[in-house]
Amino acid sequence: MLTVCTTSTDEDLATTGDAMLAIFGATTTSVVTTTQDIEYAGRLARRASRWAESYVGRPLTLQVYSETLPAAGDDLLMLSRYPVVAMLRLFDSSATSAATELKSTEYRVESAEAGLIGRDAGFRWTAQQMVGETCFSLGLTPSYLPGRVTRPWLAEYVAGYRVVGSTVTCMGVSSGHDAYTTQTTLPDDVVQAVAAKAAELYANPTGVLSRRVGDLAVEYASAGPGASLAGAAALLDPYRSAA
């Protein structure tokens, strides 16, 4: 189970200026003459931001999460939200009556970008064991049923990127923490992808590349002059979630 403990107030992964540059190119100042153009570019940036998070399969802005997790019996746990900015707490059980909080020295962020938590003592396998006779065993040895995995490990953590102009608080990360920063951490590729998508939406609001009515055929442009040649989706491919 995944719970968002503190929801981000940031909505845009690219600024209105980023979107305007992708839409109108270097001639932005000579092309844009009305506040309606600027407001429309801002709305497209927000719409493109929602598309980006949907495409990668997870929120990208800073948030605090509480998540119950299964383990495979090795020394790693995999969180579903990343990059991991900070681990706040880690428990060996989701039951409040029996949970023991692990000391911060007992585990570590093995890979922030992949959402992996490491522990030298390991994380016990959480597959349910059947002692009696089943279709997988005659009762001579314990068996494990496929898909019957519990999620006893409980992690509370901060994950995501800080965007330009973010007004979110430290979210549990103090100024003395290694991960604390007030600077933007959102990768440039993500910003460029969102701006490029905004340009695509400006050139073709409906998403339809061509239309034909009888002998009349119309093909629409796919992006503005400042859009990436690689395409918005291609820029986000390295950040997509596996599941």
Strand order of the largest sheet: 1-2-9-4
The low-confidence runs, each spanning 5 or more residues with pLDDT under 50, are 223-229
Give the rounded overall mean pLDDT. 81
Cα radius of gyration in angstroms:
24 Å
Q: In percent, how helical is the residue content? A: 10-25%
Distance between the termini: 15 Å
- What is the element string, with H for helices and E for strands? EHHHEEEEEEEEHEEH
Q: What count of helical segments does DSSP give?
A: 5
The major β-sheet equals:
4 strands, antiparallel
Number of strand elements? 11
Strand residue percentage: 15-25%
Q: How many discrete domains?
A: 2
What structural class results from the helix and strand content?
A: alpha+beta
Shape: elongated
Explain this structure to me?
The protein is of the alpha+beta class and 243 residues long. The chain has two domains: 2-60 and 185-239, no CATH class; 68-85 and 103-159, no CATH class. It has five helices and eleven strands, in the order βαααββββββββαββα. It has helices at residues 16-24, 28-31, 35-56, 188-203, 232-236; strands at residues 2-6, 63-69, 76-78, 84-91, 108-111, 116-118, 127-130, 143-149, 153-159, 210-213, 216-219. The protein has a four-stranded antiparallel sheet with strand order 1-2-9-4, with no helix packed on it. Strands 3-6-5 form a three-stranded antiparallel sheet, with no helix packed on it. A hairpin with a 2-residue loop joins strand 10 and strand 11 (216-219). Helix 1 (16-24) crosses helix 3 (35-56), helix 1 (16-24) crosses helix 4 and helix 3 (35-56) packs across helix 4 (188-203). The longest helix is centred in the first third of the chain and has 22 residues, at 35-56. The protein is elongated. It starts with a strand and ends in a 7-residue tail after the last helix. 30% of the residues are buried.
